[in-house]
Amino acid sequence: MPTDSSSAQEASRAGQATTACGCDSVPVGAKGLAPLSSALSALRECCPVMPVEQVSVSKAAGRVLAEDVYAELDVPPADNSQMDGYCARVADIGDGAWLPISQRIAAGQPTSPLASASCARLFTGAEIPEGADVVVMQEEVTLRENEDGTTEAWLPGPRIPGDNIRRQGRDVTRGTRLIAAGTRLDAAMLGLLCGQGLSRVSVRRKVRVALFATGDELIEPGQPLEPGQIYNSNRVMLSQMLSDFGADVVLAPLNVADTFEATRDALATAAEQADLIVTCGGVSVGEEDHVRPAIEALGSLDLWRLAIKPGKPLALGRILNTQGDSVRVVGLPGNPVSSWVGGWLFLRPILGEMLDCDALRTLRSLRVRSAFSANTAIRQDHLRVTLTPADDGQLEAHAFPDQNSAVLSSCVGAEALAVIPPHAQISPGDSVECLWLES
């Protein structure tokens, strides 16, 4: 598997990579390393947006809404009681009054206009009868039985009109935009959709992703390790990240042999089945790193090698399948942390483009106070940090002590990536930018 150490061989001169779709070439800087901004620009160019499909609302969690949804109903559809109690007219209650109970109303039952100088027993969610303008909670009410068998209720006063009443349209007003296109649907949004009586909704089809790792040293968990072998941790990790970001992994072979032919054939097969190809490993400069030349043999390379840490080896390219479609390829480095960071920095935004979802296109940035020291050379660093409020209320970023790109435990529990610019020296107390990790 490739390494991501700063001592890896650097390119001897700068250059430019051209794209296969007429996009601008990607500028590269010192020692042939492209900045992160160039990589993100290249990543987003010419990405196809997924088609629209109808799915059941009950199965739409995490899906990206394809069309604005407007409310066709007021919610609630009529004034209703927000508690169990008794409704009446404020004028009839005055400073307090005994009022006969003229009707009993449960949620979902039709009502009749409230008789003059009377009250109605009603329950949470029950519709307010015409004429009533206040609800008194049952704990404040005293009941008495009359000799004729009727019941009266003592409603203390004075009262305020509208007390304990949920007005029609308080939650949702008919005609307003309920949820905007491009929104990832969560549980509360599904509730809003169901509250409008919708059973199906238009969403973007999930991005079909082909994911495979390269490396003869990789074996699957559960198998005995032979000398020189390691367990394949990246395949399941990246598969879960892709799923969290709204993709559907449709092809994930256990491993691809470290040969040019096997890598080329795997890429060609993936291009026939997937909207996006993600590879892990084989993108560096070693003799056993075949992803880059395989991409170039089947299509074109947009970008290779970035001025970031971890994750300098990165291959962005395109492969033309037999249907004439250009399928994007993202080749991540094989070191576990480099793959994990690359998932956040590159896989999430490209899925945001393909799903037309702004929430996925960028990670939220916030400035916090550093609780660590750091120094950078020519590459921008991304430290795994947790965020903790200090005694003065300010957020502090605490870096995992070992930030090596092979130490996957630095990612467990990480809440953000602290972005350290090139040629920077950070001391405790300095302000640093952090990218909040939220799927």
UniProtKB/TrEMBL annotation:
Coiled coil: none annotated. CDD domains: MoeA (cd00887). PROSITE patterns: MOCF_BIOSYNTHESIS_2. Its EC number is 2.10.1.1. Residues 210-353 form the MoaB/Mog domain. The keyword Magnesium applies. This is Molybdopterin molybdenumtransferase. It comes from Cobetia marina. The gene is glp.
